[in-house]
Design a protein that fits this description.
Blueprint (H helix, E strand, L loop, with lengths): L2 E5 L6 H8 L7 E5 L10 H15 L2 E2 L3 H10 L4 H17 L7 H8 L1 H7 L1
Parallel strand pairs: 1-2, 2-3
Helix pairs in contact: 3-4
Length: about 120
């Protein structure tokens, strides 16, 4: 690789990430993600799935940001309010859609174990 292409703070903005990646030359640029894939935007799940795919298929490097850390803490029922205050509701909705009267942590952990493992 001749160059690096660095992306950070995506925050669930899938369409914007797709547009940005149009400038990445996969033959010459090492793709590096600096974290904060989730929260605030409406498509956190799609963003994480794309980043995960780029890691596996193109050798991208994906670092964990503080928003992924907050998400993992929320899953473990620690610092719940911090996650929710920083865009967590949007992330939960991105993963589960409308979630009435369900255990959101359990539903995410059981439905998306590969994503949880990746974010760890």
């Amino acid at each position: 690789m001749d160059n690096v292409f660095v992306v950070g703070d995506i925050h669930g903005c899938y369409e914007e990430l797709i547009e940005l990646l149009q400038h990445w030359d996969k033959n010459h640029d090492q793709l590096i993600f600096l974290g904060d894939y989730i929260d605030r935007g409406k498509d956190s799940r799609k963003v994480v799935e794309l980043v995960q795919r780029l890691v596996h298929e193109h050798g991208a490097i994906a670092l964990k940001g503080n928003h992924e850390d907050m998400f993992m803490n929320w899953l473990n029922e620690w610092q719940t309010e911090r996650f929710i205050r920083n865009g967590g509701k949007e992330t939960i909705h991105s993963f589960l859609g409308t979630s009435d009267e369900i255990d959101e942590r359990r539903a995410i952990a059981e439905t998306f174990p590969q994503i949880i493992h990746f974010l760890k």
